[in-house]
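Proteins fold reproducibly. Consider a sample protein:
=====
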Amino acid sequence: MNKILITTKAWHDKFCHYTDYLQHPFLLFVRLYWGIQLMQSGWGKLHNLDKVTDFFTSLGLPAPGFTATAISSLEFFGGFLLAIGLFSRLISFVLTINMLMAYITADKEALHSIFSDPDKFTAAAPYVFLMASLIVFVFGPGIFSVDALASRFFWKTPPGNKTPA
């Protein structure tokens, strides 16, 4: 019986070792796909600021013209930074707050149904952007990012040393 457990654990460990290689391509996919989607959303809003301002006015948001410009710019430039993986955790944190505010201001019904009707919550427009932002915030951008590249060149660590020089 002990041999079966040892063999099963070895197979499990090997499986986990190989699936670990999928983390960085997955993070790249999340950043590229949703970053580009966010850029397109921001671009569309930047080119229709009057409609966005009117929508923000209908929500009762303060300074709707400024807020429309700020949110549209955040989505466009934040999507770009997310896609290339630059300042990834910082921008994903800001985007997470932005998407939570989108739920609070524009999709209150979906937000309130998070437990009673999860389908309504997940079908709301901010959901996928919120999840993508949270994934990058929690797990980082991965090795296929400008952040990782910059880290290798600007904060080199000498062999055997775990802290940046």
Q: What stands out?
A: The two ends are 50 Å apart (CA to CA).
